[in-house]
Amino acid sequence: MKKGLVMEGGAMRGMFTCGVIDVMLENGIEFDIAVGVSAGATFGLNFKSKQIGRPLRYNKVYCNDKRYASFKSLIETGDLYNVPFCYGTLPYELDVWDTETFYNNPMDFYCVATDLQSGNAVYHKCDNPDSTPEGVDIKWIRASASMPVVSRPVKINGRAYLDGGMSDSIPLKFMESQNCDRILVIETQPIDYVKQPQKYMWLIKMVLRNYPKMIETMAKRHEMYNEEKAYIRAQEAAGKVFVIRPAAPLKIGATEKKPEELQRVYELGRAAAISQLAALKAYLG
Q1: Which GO terms describe its biological process (predicted)?
Q2: Residue 49 known to be catalytic
Q3: Where are the domains positioned within the chain?
Q4: What is the C-alpha to C-alpha distance for residues 86 and 73, in angstroms, rounded to an integer?
Q5: Are the C-beta atoms of 194 and 66 separated by less than 8 Å?
Q6: Rounded mean pLDDT, 262-275
Q7: Topology annotation, domain 3-63+99-196+223-284
Q8: CA–CA separation, 122 vs 114, rounded Å?
Q9: Which of 38, 144, 146, 151 is catalytic?
Q10: Helix or strand or coil: residue 20?
Q11: Which of 22, 137, 163, 168 is catalytic?
Q12: Residue 36 Cα distances to 17, 77, 94, 97, 251, angstroms
């Protein structure tokens, strides 16, 4: 029996995912392979490192810290989320990511990024145990969560990457390709959510003018996303996947500054997981 975990992104909607994975950690639920997109990667990696409460904790502590995310950082560096702080100081000094546990955990962990030249999704397996801010895996995780327009492209091995959610927002089909017998999908939008076309394509075309394939991918993102949501519903109805999702829109800011709002969405994730815990255990076997 091979078990897979899929974690959608969605900026601070990812606090919902944090609540779900913490309940699973507390109850000893394990998977053979996991894939995270954007916030699903940056927060979801804590499932592999078994650090209950870590992403909620550091987001509540630093959500109002200008070193973490600010327009000052965007203007000065090109990144809304300050790279040296978010991917260096914070995880390696202030609220330490347990890389030893992460790399010793046999569960495979993938993050999804979008290749700017091709506009296609790239699935990177995080199995390069370099526990420093210069490590290749932390660069891929950063690429996965680097939102277009408010982030600089992340350069890795001569290629440029941005947010994986642009090309594969909820990678169930990727997980199915890994021959999993049981798959849990954690979504951060309710079942009936329909994504609308991008309102700011004019700005995207200007900022990403050197990457026409990426522009094309972003112009069609809503179609990709809605197709993935429909596919997940169909697989769920057929009993082929188990889905935990919010019952209603989470209504939280992408760069939420209120710790109580982060806590609220986290608690919604916990409540959803607890309410479905018995059914999830039965499904996973």
Answers
A1: lipid catabolic process
A2: no
A3: 3-63+99-196+223-284
A4: 11
A5: no
A6: 98
A7: Cytosolic phospholipase A2 catalytic domain (3.40.1090)
A8: 6
A9: 38
A10: helix
A11: 163
A12: 10, 26, 23, 16, 21
